[in-house]
Structures are given as C-alpha cells and as structure tokens.
Amino acid sequence: VKGDRIYGGEVIGIVGPNAIGKTTFARILAGEIEPDEGYTSTGALRISYKPQFLSPAMFGSESHSVEELLKKISPESLNQDSWLYADVTRKLGIVKLLPRDISSLSGGELQKLAIAVTLSREADIYLLDEPSAHIDVEDRITVARAIKRVVENRGRAAIVIEHDVSIMDFIADRIMVFKGEPGVEGIAEAPTSVKSGMNSLLKYLDVTFRRDPRTNRPRINKPGSYLDRYQKSIGEYYYETPHDIEAPVNEQEE
C-alpha cells in the first residue's frame, strides 16, 4: 500500500477486481488482522467498521430488537429531532424495523442496519466494505447520501470499498485503486482523483464507461463498439461529464 493522507470531510473510495486484497486491507485498518509485512498505526483512531459479510450474531445477542441495539449504540439515532435520525435512521428505512428482532431481518435489511450502526457511532474514520451489497438499486444512492451526510456533518473521513461504479462515482472524493494478481498479490495505489483512479482501473480491466447525457450516470460501453474503441484510442476509459465525449452522437449505444 502506497502511503498518503486522508482528510476529515472526505470519502476515499477503494476499487479493484475481486480477491485482490481490498477486504484484507479493511480488516487490517479495523485491527481485526495483522499485516504480513510492515505495521499499522491506527490505534489512536476510532474506526467504525462495517464488514463485508454480515450476520445477526455480529451485533451480540440475536434476540434483541433493532431499537434496543440502536439505543445502546447511539441514543441520538433515535432522537426524532436530530439530524442523525433524519439522515440515517429514517432515510435508510430503519424506523419501520425498530420493533423487529435482528434475527428476523432479511439480507438487505441487515445491511441497512449495519450501515446505520456504523454511521451512528462517534468515530474518526468510517470504514464500510461493500455497503451496496443486497441493497436495491434505487436505495443505493440513499445509502451513499447517508454516508456523505455523516462525513460532512461530523467532519470525519470515510473509506468505502465498492464495486458499483455509479455509487463510487457519486460518493468518492478520491479513489485508491488495487491491482495485482487476484488471490496472490494486491498492490494499492495512493489516493488520486476519481477520474484518474477510475481511468486507471478501467484500463487495467480493459473496460470503458461513458456518461449518460440524460442521467449523468456512468454507463458501460459494449465491448468492441464504436465508443469503446474510440475511448480506448484516446486513452479515456472513463468520462467525468457528458461534454467530455466528442464522438458522434449517433454512434453512441444505449
């Protein structure tokens, strides 16, 4: 991992292929495992960590309710006059889950609860591994907004591992790209701009994305299509705005 600084109020996105070490990196930062080489010095930092794999058991006793858990973690998250309640508890749909036993939650509900718990804690760094997993597409931006809101309101930093390009495009201020040989070795580049980081990753994966002029969201190009070939020819694997693209409009595929 190449060193750099992370600043309060910013979100660092982590991207890369599967089995390249992203989750291992998160677990090292969270203090769950030790690195094979070097050292970490996060002991003085409060890190609130949402792991990739979830189970009701991670919250302690499986028999208690969502409300009991949040009351223990952060009473503010249940205060209807607080911004935390408005921007996290309510927006993530946790209010309707309050009377439910944690053991009865579906995968998507458990994910939302884990995100709410992570964001409700007072911390220096919020570390979330794949927060969009098991979440409906229409709810993913809501999750991303909740993360950004907490980071901005508290002036803290967040590190988010995510495979959904649209979410990473929306949430990240800077990006760390992991490359290497999956299952063998992963090398993390220092944080860079979203455009530079995504361009580096997509070139590595040999994939191109354009920007939809109607929704402004990134959309993958069909392999071998005109836009795919054109963007590769000019070294632009990822466009930040629809205006970046100069290829003929009638050549652009949906």
Short characterization:
The protein is an alpha/beta fold and 254 residues long. 33% of the residues lie in helices and 15% in strands.
Describe what this molecule looks like in 3D.
It is a single chain. The protein has 254 residues and is α/β, with parallel strands linked by helices. It has two domains: 11-192, Rossmann fold; 206-251, no CATH class. It is 33% helix and 15% strand. The protein contains eight helices and nine strands. It has helices spanning 22-29, 66-73, 83-90, 107-120, 137-154, 165-171, 194-205, 226-233; strands spanning 11-15, 47-50, 125-129, 157-161, 174-181, 185-188, 192-193, 209-211, 218-220. The strands form two sheets. Strands 1, 2, 3, 4, 5, 6 and 7 form a seven-stranded mixed β-sheet that branches. It has a two-stranded antiparallel ribbon with strand order 8-9. Helix 4 runs parallel beside helix 5 (137-154). The longest helix has 18 residues, at 137-154. The chain is globular, with a radius of gyration of 19 Å. The two termini are 37 Å apart. Mean pLDDT is 89; it is low at 249-254.
